[in-house]
Amino acid sequence: MTATPAIRFERVHKTYRGAPQAALSDVSFDIQPGEFFGLLGPNGAGKTSLISILAGLSRADSGRVAVLGHDVVGDFAAARRHLGVVPQELVFDPFFSVRETLRFQSGYFGVAADERWIDELLDNLGLLNKADANMRQLSGGMKRRVLVAQALVHRPPVIVLDEPTAGVDVELRQTLWAFIARLNKEQGTTVLLTTHYLEEAEALCGRIGMLKAGRLVALDRTAALLAHRSHQVLRFKTDQALPADIDARVTGRIAQIKAQDAAEVERLLARLRQAQVGIEDLEIGRADLEDVFLEIMNASHG
Ligand SMILES: Nc1ncnc2c1ncn2[C@@H]1O[C@H](COP(=O)(O)OP(=O)(O)OP(=O)(O)O)[C@@H](O)[C@H]1O
């Protein structure tokens, strides 16, 4: 199968002026048409840098990036036309209404505003009753919805979402993912997503790439990444501190402890009882994408 990739990153290098180390080193991978792809990595790993190069907002020092075969530098207009980018930051002209903002964006791509499509976007993103509101009157979450609509207004075959759900409420997350998943499934729209919510990536993405310190340290199908989990996880709630010899991940009242096998689960429970740690809502489950992510990040030296 030699279809033109939806997105091709080829040996991309980038070092910001004055920076002690490269933001991106030799990053190469392809995303195929119709894929729902997740790009993960800790803060500073290089995700936004890679997306800025893809969107033509920044230049790689070397390497090549193409959208459906269109080079993002040499063939910028075509590459950009095939791409819908939902950026991390909220930047708008406060004097336009929502509908005007979307019409204006259509003009930017040199296409006539398609009012039916604009209405469909507004409807799917829960913005119909805000169509005539000025941008400055909208809440942060509503503005984020407009950013998504703006990225989709020219019906791009490839969409890029850079942490679209950072700081947004559950309702918007669900609305947004339902809509994006539908575009992916029904229209074959390619989706590239970066997120720190690993349960979202696990649920949505067919394939995942992980960046660490500017290098690609994992690239595989989500199911294959999850299949590599070597361990189980003990999850419970507690109000007490755990004994120092237990290596746990603690978030608020929730503790998670890795166990290699059933015998280790028993050993850990005995140790907790012995230390008189009161535990509630005990679950023994398989590791999730977050565990796999932490394992990969700890294993790779970057
Ligand atoms: N304009 C810039 N000038 C100098 N250094 C930069 C610039 N933008 C990013 N960097 C550096 O490049 C590296 C990669 O940053 P980038 O924003 O791409 O990471 P990220 O994976 O998107 O992080 P986050 O998850 O925090 O959004 C970091 O070390 C960052 O400090």
UniProtKB/TrEMBL annotation:
InterPro entries: AAA+_ATPase (IPR003593), ABC_transporter-like_ATP-bd (IPR003439), ABC_transporter-like_CS (IPR017871), ABC_transporter_ATP-binding (IPR050763), P-loop_NTPase (IPR027417)
Residue stretches making up the ABC transporter domain: 7-238
Signal sequence interval, chain numbering: none
Entry keywords, A to Z: ATP-binding, Cell membrane, Membrane, Nucleotide-binding, Transport
MF term (GO), any: ATP hydrolysis activity
Record has Repressor as a keyword: no
Pfam families: ABC_tran (PF00005)
Protein name (record): ABC-2 type transport system ATP-binding protein
